[in-house]
Amino acid sequence: MGSRNRLQEINHELKKIFTWNYLKGLVVNPAQLPFMAFLIIVAELILNVLIVEKVPYTEIDWKAYMQECEGFLNGTLDYSKLRGDTGPLVYPAGFVYIYSLFYFLTEKGNNIKLAQYIFIGVYILLLSLVLRIYIKTKKVPPYVLAITILTSYRIHSIHILRMFNDPVAVLFLYISINFFLDSKWYLGSIFYSLAVSIKMNILLYAPALFFFYLINLGLKDTIKQLFTCGMIQFVLGLPFLIVNPVAYIKGSFDLGRVFNHTWTVNYRFLDIKLFESVYFHLTLLSIHIMLLLICLPMCIKYFQSYCRLKFVQKQVQPQIEAKNKERKSKLKKDIKMKINSNIDKEEKLSKEQEQFINSFEMMLQKSSQKSGNKISKKIVNNESEKAYSINFDILSQLFVLPMFLVNFIGIVCARSLHYQFYSWYFHTLPYLLWCTNYTIIIRFLILALIEFCWNTYPSTDITSAMLHVCHISILYGVCKKMSTELKMASKIQ
Q: Where is the chain membrane-spanning (predicted)?
């Protein structure tokens, strides 16, 4: 009987899968993203292999990375003496260790194709972690992610053809965000700090993460998490700190670094002197701080709601599971009782009509089985409709949006964006745009214009200005919607 019920359930699920609403949901329903996410991963794997095999490799920074790591592997621990063709080493110690590993794996950096295949692995893992965040938040339709991810020329170039360190840093960041979503605080802190140790831009998330710690953990445990992050930086940098601490700190965490105007994507329209001016940099820093002061109070309220609802989840989830277990047990008893009752009725009927039982015995048995099946199916369906279920994963939105927003503010106020910096926020753009009230057409238009700006080389006055317009439009749309939602929530309370 158990196997028959299982077959009925499978048959019911198969019928549901081949309905128009279900198939449509695979494309437009954020709750049905897992299937599309699997297809995206498979498509990306195939696409990236084709890129490696068909598109010529162009050298930019890989050789310099290998030269910097070679100096370290030869025993040089003074950061001021570690250099490559593009200049001095300007990344923290985590970068040195990871790219030293790549140095060994790729025959001193000479096996370019193997390095590209390693970066295919990096990108597929990064993409899996990004899609897991989108699956949890249930915010963005599957077709949006498929179009955005699969059609970005620049992102594939950054990861597979150029092998910059930015994607590696972002990979560790997304690992940490996934751990934070699972409430694994120490693992989240460890991987966040590892991400910072590869490239300093990950610190753009720090203001949001600090308040996330504070609201969820309190001051004492926040200090523990900050200590964990700090210790990782200290341990990784220790060999270099012992030899020349000033050179290490100045080289890997240089906040006053002046970027080359030749590579800028966002400020091509500025005169070189103005672009390199200290006052221009201070102005951008002031705007950055001002925007954080405006947006962080809203982010804090989101974090507070996340914390409260997570507490409710801890209280309610065991009760829901216990109740569903109880209902499942009751369901089995009800099925047995109904089937037995049905068989008894059939038997009574056959006794009253003894003269027919011999000739119609087989027919009555089949009828009894069919009737029993209908009863059990009806109970199963009714029970599934009544089952208790609360999808707590959607709470992730209250954490993810503030994190992505604070990073995006840093992008908007960046003193210069180089082409590889697109990886810092590319995968967050669909999420941010779907947190605005803009129409679908406007959202896709902004995504397309941003992609166009990043694909234009060298950048022009028009593309730089257009990129700022797109960024400001997203920032305005997100903040406006957040403000409206918080006002509505306060009225309800």
A: 33-52, 89-105, 117-134, 140-156, 168-186, 192-214, 226-249, 278-300, 398-419, 431-450
Tell me if 89 sits within 8 A of 82, measured CB to CB.
yes
> Residue 485 phi/psi, 5° resolution?
-65, -40
CA 14, CA 201: separation in Å to the nearest integer?
A: 47
Partnered with residue 84 across adjacent β-strands are: 87
In this predicted model, what pLDDT tens digit does every residue of 310-364 receive, in sequence order? Answer: 888 777 767 666 666 666 666 656 655 654 554 454 445 444 445 444 444 444 4
Prediction pTM value: 0.85
Give yes or no for a contact between 174 and 129, defined as CB atoms under 8 angstroms apart: yes
pLDDT given at position 363? 47
Per-residue model confidence (pLDDT) at position 159: 94
pLDDT for 354: 52
Each residue of 35-70: pLDDT tens digit? 999 999 999 999 999 999 999 998 999 999 999 999
Those residues with Cβ within 8 angstroms of residue 409's Cβ, 6 or more apart along the chain or in another chain: 204, 288, 291, 292, 295, 475
3-state secondary structure the chain: CHHHHHHHHHHHHHHHHCCHHHHHHHHHCHHHHHHHHHHHHHHHHHHHHHHHHHCCCCCCCHHHHHHHHHHHHCCCCCHHHCEECCEECCCCHHHHHHHHHHHHHCCCCCCHHHHHHHHHHHHHHHHHHHHHHHHHHCCCCHHHHHHHHHCCHHHHHHHHHHCCCHHHHHHHHHHHHHHHHCCCHHHHHHHHHHHHCCCHHHHHHHHHHHHHHHHHHHHHHHHHHHHHHHHHHHHHHHHHHHHCHHHHHHHHCCCCCCCCHHHCCCCCCCCHHHHCCHHHHHHHHHHHHHHHHHHHHHHHHHHHHHHHHHHHHHHHHHHHHHHHHHHHHHHHHHHHHHHHHHHHHHHHHHHHCHHHHCCCHHHHHHHHHHHHHHHHHHHHHHHHHHCCCCCHHHHHHHHHHHHHHHHHHHHHCCCCCCHHHHHHCHHHHHHHHCCCCCCHHHHHHHHHHHHHHHHCCCCCHHHHHHHHHHHHHHHHHHHHHHHHHHHHHHHHC
CA 160 – CA 58 distance, rounded (Å): 11
Does the structure show a pLDDT above 70 at 162?
yes
pLDDT over 70 at 187, yes or no: yes
